[in-house]
Inverse folding.
């Protein structure tokens, strides 16, 4: 409910915009939980980097407002050939980089070649279908090895954003990595064509974006974007301090507000508490291998036990204590509701203790079976989740114990399979379900998010969907995968959460997209 | 022995100490579960990617080779490249060190300003109510976790009363004094309690000493006695204590810097550990060790100057 | 204490102790803390882990004098049960360091020579090493939890005891009775453990009292980082950390465990100061 009304509010304010003349200029002060380290389309691999790429760089195509299609970006026109193997794009006339240099087809070829080079980009796999990229004047041609239904979405994704070839050619350094780091460190205007350019950076402390006066897009009022003169970012890792900074008026916005504080900030008349709809899902992978890492038999290998855990988990209660109501149970086992092709299977494992007990009895689970939940040390949410699950699963005869580790250890355990269940989360990077489904279920990608789950039918469906150009047929395949996955329950399906950002009421037009991207293009701040 | 000779000998003795520190940190970081390649490439990277990064970072070399590289590069002043920051560790440290040193020195000065006068009041009123009140208040400061005190100060003094800024650390010297006041007070609450205790008993000891009793009996004005004997002794013991606790003090900045969003070495260390940034952890640890050893040495030299009974040995 | 009382008569240790209000208060506080730590169930009004989704973050009331926490658990009961963990921390976090440090310090102080030289380098290395880094890294290697935390703390802390002990032993060696022992032809063992140690241990005991308070504080910091006590075990640092987002809205969550830390710290400190006063050699 809450989420819907917030969404309504966002839409209402967006629609109201054209009538008003936008206030221009000024600096927006934004408090972040973690700093960017290197904002480069291909080297951005952490969310604080990825989510800022769009402010400094442009992509050929842009995601539509509803997230289900693409619209022109740097390319003013685009088409896919009949056989699905050629994408033709026309580069917009007169696009300039932030330093005033013109963008040409060479920059496009350079950027895309860089993005799909597996030696450079960790995201190259997403562009595996591309055979060649060529440019003739403003005409860009992308030839594919196989038809790829995701290619247009990929051209609207951060990793295919366009960088200046000249900037890389003149930058100091031996390798592409060195050059990229040198360009970033120089905080110069010449590398991107996004609404802002990086004009200040202090590692781990602060960062500044300045308006790109050559930006090609116009706002709803017909005037060139962006409205702001600059955005100043302060890194304040501590949740409580970040909020205090906002309350003291030192910053205009603070992101990643703990859900426990949302109600309090909503009540504050100076603060506009926003819950942006997201593709973030919170789940816990369950080890499905026959034996545990120490060689002992794994009670969770039995799908019935995993189903029982899901039935015995009261999602509403969890959402109450962890999210303070700001969230909803997962409705699809593989993705957030906002993702394309998401099937609504809700209620997905609605709380049912009798069914859960029957399932563990059927599976012959021993009373007093010890199961370890690996959580993130120092995370208040994870401690709460553990305490709640321990109580919820006790009636099944499961003795839940906790193991608190840091992120790096959890990652290593996920990789090696040395866990029973661990907390985890996901936000889509790409506006297409294939990425998250590959991650959670397709065995070759990451052993089905480390669970070791392997289902031949699922894997075949996934491979077929990768070349399926008919959206309807593709949708059917994704529906079937979601059904298979729900039954096998390799995860503890938990909930979806919005992005909680608190803004001073003086701030308008700021948006965080469902993929997490921070969009300052149309933001204004009145002083 | 001349003090130059002494200093040279002490510096020589630091060599095995630093070697030991390097061995410990080198082994310790490599025993941590997970490795920089995983932390760097993220959970989503494939095993082949991880292996490639491992090779690029030189983590596939035998341990001894890795240690030799670490050792020989360090001797040449090269601490390697930070995996997390993608720049030279030396640059990062040069960037962050002044912040932490500023915070530490600032809090030591504040501690002395708070603890000094109150220790005299407590000692001179030994056993009476001012003594009890002062000691109890300091004890409370000593017993409160830094992360809690820091937050309480921020909530009331910064966010509500707006007396101090919540975040940032300023550009000019006076701005820094203003911005870092609360974090320094937070650290100082703890340090001043320790100094106060020590100072109080040092003063009492001197007051009880025969030569002071004798001076009093001779009718020397108490101000003179305080100045001549008590101050000097108090100073010696305080400097010794501060020197010894410099390590703890700087360790304490780890949490303080996180709570107050101060971009210093402590917070960086925490980030480096979480990211398994081996070169950065190693570099920071070594910097820390050099700094602490330097302070120890200064303390000893200072002590010997002040107190002729202390022979350098 | 004035010198007068000391020289006039030699009353029994206990009667002297009773004349010191600080020491008495310290004894009472620590005594009561131990009582709570040993029999938390007898004092806590509720089970500390019972979750009540309908009573979340309630302010203090007659039913819940310290209010309830994020999961509707009774905060008073959690603070009381935390005595068990935190007092255990105070003891096990220090006692291994104390014993090891005292023995090594005494031996090194007595024999000096090459052992002293090596000892000096080890001490330097440990003291110049960033302490929290060592503890955090060791806990990450061994896995979080109280036992591993004790190991990590002990690995560092023994050095402080050993240094103190060494200095005391060297000072005591200058005294007549040690020289007498050597003249009498007593064995080294007898001289160290029967003569030097009992005389040199007073400052160590006093330091131990302060150290216990510090270890509780350290354990709390580690709990805050998720490296100390493991949930659902209640521990003051963890309880404070849980309440830190609610300092202005649900202040009781962090204040009450904070007071418990302060009170216990005060107890140990009073005890330490009192003992120091009582045992301080005169003349």
């Amino acid at each position: 409910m809450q989420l819907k009304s917030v969404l309504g509010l966002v839409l209402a304010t967006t629609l109201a915009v054209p009538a008003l003349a936008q206030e221009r200029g000024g600096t927006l002060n934004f408090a972040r939980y973690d700093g960017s380290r290197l904002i480069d389309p291909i080297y951005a691999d952490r969310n604080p980097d990825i989510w800022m790429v769009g402010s400094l760089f442009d992509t050929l195509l842009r995601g539509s407002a509803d997230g289900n299609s693409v619209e022109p970006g740097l390319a003013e026109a685009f088409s896919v050939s009949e056989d699905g193997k050629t994408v033709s794009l026309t580069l917009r006339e007169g696009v300039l980089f932030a330093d005033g240099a013109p963008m040409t087809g060479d920059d496009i070829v350079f950027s895309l070649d860089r993005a799909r080079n597996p030696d450079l980009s960790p995201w190259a796999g997403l562009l595996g279908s591309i055979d060649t990229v060529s440019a003739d004047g403003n005409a860009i041609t992308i030839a594919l090895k196989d038809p790829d239904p995701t290619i247009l979405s990929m051209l609207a994704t951060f990793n295919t954003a366009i960088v200046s070839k000249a900037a890389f050619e003149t930058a100091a350094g031996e390798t592409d990595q060195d050059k990229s780091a040198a360009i970033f460190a120089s905080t110069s205007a010449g590398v991107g064509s996004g609404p802002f350019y990086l004009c200040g950076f202090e590692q781990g402390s602060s960062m500044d974006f300045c308006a790109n006066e050559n930006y090609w897009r116009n706002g709803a009022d017909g005037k060139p974007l962006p409205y702001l003169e600059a955005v100043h970012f302060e890194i304040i890792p501590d949740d409580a301090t970040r909020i205090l900074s906002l309350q003291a008026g030192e910053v205009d916005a603070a992101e990643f507000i703990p859900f426990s504080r949302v109600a309090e900030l909503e009540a504050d008349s100076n603060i506009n508490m926003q819950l942006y709809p997201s593709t973030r899902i919170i789940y816990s992978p369950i080890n499905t291998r026959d034996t545990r890492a120490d060689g002992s038999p794994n009670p969770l290998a039995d799908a019935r036990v995993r189903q029982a855990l899901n039935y015995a988990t009261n999602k509403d209660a969890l959402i109450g204590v962890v999210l303070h109501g700001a969230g909803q149970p997962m409705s699809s086992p593989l993705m957030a509701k906002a993702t394309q092709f998401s099937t609504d299977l809700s209620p997905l494992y609605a709380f049912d203790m009798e069914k859960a007990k029957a399932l563990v009895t059927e599976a012959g689970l021993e009373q007093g079976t010890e199961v370890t939940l690996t959580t993130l040390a120092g995370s208040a949410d994870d401690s709460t989740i553990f305490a709640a699950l321990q109580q919820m699963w006790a009636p099944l005869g499961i003795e839940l114990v906790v193991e608190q580790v840091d992120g790096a250890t959890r990652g290593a355990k996920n990789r090696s399979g040395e866990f029973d269940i661990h907390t985890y989360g996901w936000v889509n990077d790409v506006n297409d379900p294939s990425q998250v489904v590959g991650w959670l279920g397709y065995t070759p990608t990451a052993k089905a998010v480390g669970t070791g789950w392997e289902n031949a039918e699922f894997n075949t469906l996934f491979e077929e969907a990768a070349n399926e150009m008919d959206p309807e047929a593709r949708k059917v395949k994704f529906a079937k995968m979601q059904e298979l996955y729900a039954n096998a329950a390799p995860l503890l399906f938990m909930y979806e959460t919005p992005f909680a950002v608190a803004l001073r009421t003086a701030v308008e037009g700021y948006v965080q997209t469902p993929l997490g991207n921070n969009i300052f293009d149309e933001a204004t701040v009145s002083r | 022995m001349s003090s130059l000779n002494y200093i040279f000998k002490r510096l020589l003795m630091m060599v095995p100490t630093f070697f030991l520190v390097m061995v410990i940190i080198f082994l310790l970081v490599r025993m941590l579960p997970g490795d920089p390649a995983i932390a760097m490439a993220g959970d989503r990277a494939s095993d082949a990617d991880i292996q490639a990064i491992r090779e690029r970072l030189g983590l596939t070399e035998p341990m001894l080779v890795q240690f030799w590289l670490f050792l020989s590069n360090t001797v040449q002043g090269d601490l390697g490249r930070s995996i997390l920051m993608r720049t030279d560790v030396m640059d990062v440290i040069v960037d962050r060190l002044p912040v932490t040193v500023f915070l530490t020195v600032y809090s030591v000065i504040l501690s002395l300003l708070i603890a000094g006068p109150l220790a005299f009041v407590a000692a001179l009123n030994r056993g009476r109510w001012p003594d009890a009140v002062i000691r109890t208040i300091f004890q409370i400061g000593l017993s409160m976790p830094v992360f809690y005190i820091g937050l309480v100060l921020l909530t009331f003094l910064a966010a509500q009363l707006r007396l101090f800024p919540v975040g940032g650390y300023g550009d000019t010297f006076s701005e820094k004094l203003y911005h870092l006041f609360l974090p320094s007070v937070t650290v100082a609450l703890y340090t001043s309690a320790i100094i106060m205790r020590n100072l109080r008993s040092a003063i009492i000891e001197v007051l009880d000493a025969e030569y002071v009793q004798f001076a009093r009996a001779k009718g020397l004005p108490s101000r003179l006695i305080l100045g001549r004997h008590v101050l000097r002794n108090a100073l010696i013991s305080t400097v010794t204590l501060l020197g010894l606790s410099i390590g703890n003090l700087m360790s304490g900045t780890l949490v303080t810097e996180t709570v107050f969003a101060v971009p210093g070495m402590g917070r960086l260390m925490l980030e480096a550990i979480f990211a398994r940034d081996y070169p950065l952890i190693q570099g920071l640890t070594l910097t820390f060790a050099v700094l602490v050893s330097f302070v120890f040495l200064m303390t000893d030299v200072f002590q010997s100057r002040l107190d002729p009974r202390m022979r350098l040995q | 204490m004035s010198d007068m009382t000391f020289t006039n008569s030699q009353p029994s240790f206990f009667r002297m102790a009773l004349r010191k209000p600080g020491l008495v208060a310290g004894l009472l506080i620590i005594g009561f803390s131990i009582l709570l730590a040993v029999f938390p169930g007898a004092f806590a009004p509720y089970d500390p882990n019972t979750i009540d989704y309908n009573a979340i973050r309630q302010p203090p009331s007659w039913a819940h004098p310290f209010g309830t926490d994020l999961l509707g658990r009774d905060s008073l009961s959690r603070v009381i049960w935390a005595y068990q963990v935190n007092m255990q921390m105070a003891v096990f976090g220090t006692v291994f360091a104390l014993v090891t440090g005292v023995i090594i310090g005494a031996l090194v102080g007595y024999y000096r020579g090459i052992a002293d030289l090596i000892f000096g380098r080890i001490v330097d290395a440990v003291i110049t090493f960033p302490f929290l880094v060592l503890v955090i890294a060791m806990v990450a290697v061994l896995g979080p939890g109280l036992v591993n935390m004790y190991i990590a703390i002990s690995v560092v802390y023994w050095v402080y005891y050993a240094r103190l002990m060494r200095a005391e032993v060297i000072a005591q060696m200058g005294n007549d009775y040690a020289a007498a022992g050597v003249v009498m032809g007593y064995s080294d063992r007898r001289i160290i453990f029967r003569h030097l140690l009992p005389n040199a241990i007073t400052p160590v005991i006093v330091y131990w009292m302060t150290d216990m308070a510090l270890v509780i504080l350290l354990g709390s910091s580690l709990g805050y980082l998720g490296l100390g006590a493991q949930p659902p075990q209640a521990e003051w640092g963890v309880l404070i950390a849980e309440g830190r987002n609610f300092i202005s809205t649900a202040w009781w969550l962090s204040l009450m465990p904070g007071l418990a830390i302060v009170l216990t710290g005060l107890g140990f400190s009073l005890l330490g100061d009192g003992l120091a006063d009582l045992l301080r050699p005169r003349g």
Notes: The interface with chain B takes residues 1, 3, 22, 120-122, 124-125, 127-134, 136-138, 140-141, 213, 217, 220-221, 224, 237, 240-241, 244, 247-248, 254, 258, 261-262, 264-266, 269, 273, 276 of chain C (CB under 8 Å). Chain C has 13 helices and no strands. Residues 1-9 of chain C have pLDDT under 50 and may be disordered.
